[in-house]
Amino acid sequence: MGKLLSVVVSVYNEEPGLREFYQETKKVLEELPAPWEHELLFVNDGSRDGSLSILRELAAADSHVRLINFSRNFGHEAAMIAGIDYAAGDGIVCMDADLQHPPECIPRILEKFDQGFQVITMVRTKNRTAGLVKNVTSAAFYRLINCLSDVKFEANASDFFAVSRQAADVLRRNYREKVRFLRGYVQSIGFQRATLEYEARPRIAGESKYSIRSLFKFSINTILCFSDLPLKLGIYSGIAVALFGIAMAVYTIYTWAEYGTPSGYATIVVLLSFMFAMLFIIVGIIGEYIAILFAELKDRPVYIVEDMENFPSGTEHEKKMDGDDARNS
């Protein structure tokens, strides 16, 4: 009995390199060992260039190509979870369309599936195009999140990963947060997990869709999703300020006894500035948690599908399409 591999690809303004990605990936997929067959599922995340036209051409020419077209841009995370939602494969591989995630790694992933692993994490060993700043900040981010969270993440794990049908069902049913960190969820759901290393290839065209601002926001949301330790900062800072206040009181009494009435203007200004700074930091942290709660409370859809192409009727895909409303809740 054959097995189906679903390759999920998030697409946002990838027109210059999209055909090259398809050709390289298709070459690998056509040589998959038996009993594996394949489907190539593209999720157009509201592209503003000619990416959608190219994807429609590919879907018309290749029956293995599926297309999900969003009504607008919902973000990379939403595109990946949509691909997982609609994938019908026994194994699902998520990757980007810029060829930084090498398609030639797919046979190695299938070997892990055949060995019984249900979650395969792809760890990047090198990324020569990222630059020193991005590589350093990425390493620092993983060290920080591992210190704050009970879940320990693989350093340099990327959005290039693979899950079995059983693991994907868990993501479909239970991990439906509006603010999410999908690669973190993949590492935290359990199951038998394997890690494979790869070297990121140069981007075939275009540039990273993540600005410094968006990466910073993404990092903050990730920390808040996986740790409540920042909420306890108020307790720790309160204890620290109390100890600081006691030390200042002892110092004031000492200077009064030794030198007479002390001049306390500078001390008061420094102490007040320090306390108000800590207070505003804590209020800001609480505000970020409330923003996440507000997003969950509004319960707006993770994504909205405008149209789809090449999804066969009377199959597992059709059942998934019928359950679209339930999935997006």
Automatic annotation (TrEMBL):
It is a multi-pass membrane protein. Residues 6-146 form the Glycosyltransferase 2-like domain. Pfam families: Glycos_transf_2. GO terms for molecular function: glycosyltransferase activity. Keywords: Glycosyltransferase, Membrane, Transferase, Transmembrane, Transmembrane helix. It is found in: Membrane. InterPro entries: Glyco_trans_2-like, Glycosyltransferase_2, Nucleotide-diphossugar_trans. GO terms for cellular component: plasma membrane. The chain crosses the membrane at residues 233-254, 266-294. Its main location: membrane. PANTHER family: PROPHAGE BACTOPRENOL GLUCOSYL TRANSFERASE HOMOLOG, UNDECAPRENYL-PHOSPHATE 4-DEOXY-4-FORMAMIDO-L-ARABINOSE TRANSFERASE-RELATED. This is Glycosyltransferase family 2 protein.
